[in-house]
């Protein structure tokens, strides 16, 4: 791709997989915002004419509200692989074990503090505890390809 004053000039340099603009094979074209370009296996969305192209990222989860699985498990926002087990009494943030700051007091019990505001947090009460539904088993099956690394 060539950047010019007019915008982004797309030029196919005899690539093996071809270059496609809006699904049509092209040799050379000026890009406009909102158009999608496919370069081999990669699809690129043209975001704006000031030469900014973004490759849509599908793998990395964006900072989003806590994910609640079908079985009622809430996932930590900062650690999507971990289950949120506590909630801060102050900022009401959901916290997983890695988010909790543990403060050991002499002879006493361990204080669990919010990793964000250092206030006390309390265990989440699991209100919905039931046998694994087909739904949650289904989501476990779907998750597998992401957790396992291909050893080929
Ligand atoms: Zn807090
Ligand atoms: Zn966490």
Features:
single chain; 152 residues; mainly beta; 2 domains; five-stranded antiparallel beta sheet; elongated; binds zinc ion
Which secondary structure elements does this structure contain, and how are they paired or packed?
Blueprint: E1 2-4, E2 7-11, E3 19-21, E4 24-25, E5 28-30, E6 36-39, E7 42-48, E8 52-54, E9 84-88, E10 94-96, E11 100-104, E12 110-114, E13 121-123, H1 134-147
Antiparallel strand pairs: 1-2, 2-5, 3-4, 3-6, 6-7, 7-8, 9-10, 9-13, 11-12
Bound molecules: zinc ion (ZN) (2 copies).
Description:
It is a single chain. With 152 residues, this protein is mainly β. It folds into two domains: 2-54, no CATH class; 61-125, no CATH class. 9% of the residues lie in helices and 34% in strands. The protein has one helix and 13 strands. The chain has one helix at 134-147, and strands at 2-4, 7-11, 19-21, 24-25, 28-30, 36-39, 42-48, 52-54, 84-88, 94-96, 100-104, 110-114, 121-123. A five-stranded antiparallel sheet has the order 4-3-6-7-8, with no helix packed on it. A three-stranded antiparallel sheet has the order 1-2-5, with no helix packed on it. The chain has a three-stranded antiparallel sheet with strand order 10-9-13, with no helix packed on it. The structure holds zinc ion (ZN) (2 copies). The site of one zinc ion has 8 residues, from loops.
């Amino acid at each position: 791709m060539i950047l010019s004053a007019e915008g982004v000039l797309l030029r196919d340099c005899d690539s093996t997989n071809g270059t496609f603009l809006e699904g049509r094979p092209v040799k050379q074209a000026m890009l406009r915002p909102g158009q999608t370009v496919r370069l081999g296996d990669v699809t690129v969305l043209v975001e704006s004419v000031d030469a900014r192209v973004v490759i849509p990222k599908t793998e990395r989860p964006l900072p989003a509200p806590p994910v609640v699985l079908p079985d009622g498990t809430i996932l930590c926002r900062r650690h999507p692989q971990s289950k949120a087990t506590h909630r801060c009494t102050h900022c009401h943030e959901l916290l997983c074990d890695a988010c909790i700051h543990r403060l050991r007091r002499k002879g006493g019990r361990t204080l669990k503090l919010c990793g964000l505001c250092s206030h006390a947090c309390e265990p989440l009460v699991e209100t919905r505890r039931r046998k694994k539904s087909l739904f949650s088993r289904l989501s476990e099956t779907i998750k597998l390809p992401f957790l396992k690394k291909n050893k080929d």
